[in-house]
Structure formats: C-alpha cells, structure tokens
Specification:
The protein is mainly beta. It has two domains: 134 residues, Pnp Oxidase, Chain A (Roll), CATH 2.30.110; 92 residues, Thrombin, subunit H (Beta Barrel). Helix content is 10%, strand content 37%. The strands form two sheets. Strands 3-4-2-1-7-8-9-6-5 form a nine-stranded mixed sheet. It has a six-stranded antiparallel beta barrel with strand order 10-11-14-13-12-15. Strand 12 and strand 13 form a beta hairpin. The longest helix is centred in the C-terminal third of the chain and has 8 residues.
C-alpha cells in the first residue's frame, strides 16, 4: 500500500515520527516509534519524544513548536549554560509501519530550528522550535545614525580581518564565570572580544564581557571549556573612533558620526541652534 493511501486510511496506518537534529556535520536522530528505525542510512534511536503539533497560522509566536524529550537529551544539554554558537536545525518526517519500502517513504512535514530549551519539571526537557518560514519573517536590522560605530566587529561592514588579530592561548584556570589564560598582558584589549574553541567537530564562540589582567569574564559562563584546553582570542572594540584607529587602523571604515549635533532637528522646535 503506498504511503499516501496509508496516511488517509481509517485503520491501516501505524504512524511514527522521525526527529533529525543537525548542526554542521553533527547529527542526532530520534524517533517516537517503539523500536529503533533506520532511514537513509541514519539510525533513529527510539525515545519518549513527542511534539505539540504542526501549525501554520502565519504568526511566528503561534507557529512555534515544542518538542518534549528526556531531560538529558544530547541536543537539550547544549543549551544548559548558553545557546550553541550555530543553529541546530530540526527536520520532522512522518512514516508508518507496514510500508513495503519504508526506508524511502518518510515524508518531510516540518523544518525549523531550536531556539531555546526549558526544563519545566524533573526528567523532562522542552525544546522550543521555530519553523524556517518564521525565521524568514523576522524584522531585519537597520543601520542607525549614531556617534559610535554601528558595525559588528569583524563583519563585512567593519572589514577588519579577524585572522590578523587571532591569538591562541591555553586556559590555566577557570571558575565557571571566567577563565585565566596564559601569555596575555594586562592591556584590556579583549573586553568585548570573542573566545573560540573546538567542541567535537563544531566551533563554539562566546563573548568576552570584561578583562582583568589575564582573567577574562565570559558571557554565558565557561560550560564546555576545561583547564588546559587551547582557545582562540580575538580583541574587542568599544565602537569609538579612537579604538578603531589605534587598535585596528580601520578609521576609513568607521561607521559612526562623531560630530553629530546634540539637538535633534525633529523635536518640534523650528529654531535650530546647532548646539
């Protein structure tokens, strides 16, 4: 019996769902079936996993899907301290027992990404997921008119090459909130910068909130790091003309307006003093 006929039948269907999470070259595959399932050479592990259904209302908040799974699910644990640096994509497929060629009969029914995870009760995690159409409907950022530079450091507008300023150091101590690294002086150039390291085949990045000597406070904590590991450090920027020029020699790409007037021409006052 073909897949479509089983799907619309009254009593022939014995459905199950496949959950495939992907991050770069990493995969985590699960199914709500009562046994492990192999599809396209991917082994889906049978787990008590479910979701609250697929919706297509056109509203981002209403179309959010919640996947419920064990608390120690590998994907959920990556959100324990801070969200992963890269998106984790989720593809849902539906299939049914009894198909003559079940390995090629799992229809894609939903594609999206995991945005957050909450542990609402012991033993259970809830993965909040947005559909791919919801991400396309989000409002984009607009370039603002301000004194400080609006560009993100090392992006295509800033144009500073991150590779030129990368240094590799070892973690010699850590306390959950900050790391102590070897081989950097007390000049606070890393505040607002980035720390990067390898986690398996994935690359993790976190912002550096503050620097005190060779101690770096990490936004989101040090979960995933360990003493002795090698990390890459990238200097930060406070978005001022002085730092852009002296630290990065990049004043030609500075995006701020240092001489912007202090009085708005749109405040309703017809007389503009220029001060």
């Amino acid at each position: 019996m073909p897949f479509n006929e089983i799907e619309i039948s009254i009593s022939s269907a014995r459905p199950y769902r496949l959950y495939l999470f992907e991050r770069g070259g990493e995969r985590w595959a699960y199914t709500n079936a009562d046994r492990d399932v192999t599809y396209q050479n991917i082994a889906y592990k049978a787990l008590p996993i479910s979701d609250d259904g697929i919706r297509a209302t056109g509203e981002v908040s209403a179309d959010q899907m919640t996947v419920t799974a064990p608390a120690d699910l590998d994907v959920a644990m990556m959100f324990r301290a801070a969200a992963p640096s890269d998106d984790i994509w989720l593809t849902l497929r539906d299939s049914s027992y009894g198909l003559p060629d079940a390995a090629d009969s799992a229809a894609v029914v939903w594609v999206g990404s995991v945005r957050a995870v909450r542990w609402s009760e012991p033993g259970k995690s809830e993965l909040c997921c947005n559909s791919i159409s919801a991400s396309m409907g989000q409002t984009g950022l607009r370039l603002s008119f301000e004194r400080s530079c609006p560009h993100c450091l090392y992006d295509g507008q800033c144009r500073v090459s991150a590779a030129l300023y990368k240094v590799t150091r070892n973690i010699i101590d850590m306390n959950g909130q900050s790391i102590v690294v070897s081989g950097i002086d007390s000049t606070p150039i890393y505040a607002g910068g980035i720390v990067q390291w390898q986690s398996g085949i994935a690359t993790e990045r976190r912002a550096i909130e503050a620097q005190g000597g060779n101690t770096l406070a990490i936004l989101g904590g040090t979960y995933g790091m360990k003493t002795g590991m090698s990390v890459a450090l990238y200097p930060g920027c406070d978005q001022t003309r002085e730092t852009c020029d002296s630290r990065f020699n990049n004043i030609e790409n500075f995006g701020g307006f240092a001489h912007m007037p202090g009085k708005s021409p749109f405040d309703g006052d017809a007389i503009y003093s220029g001060s």
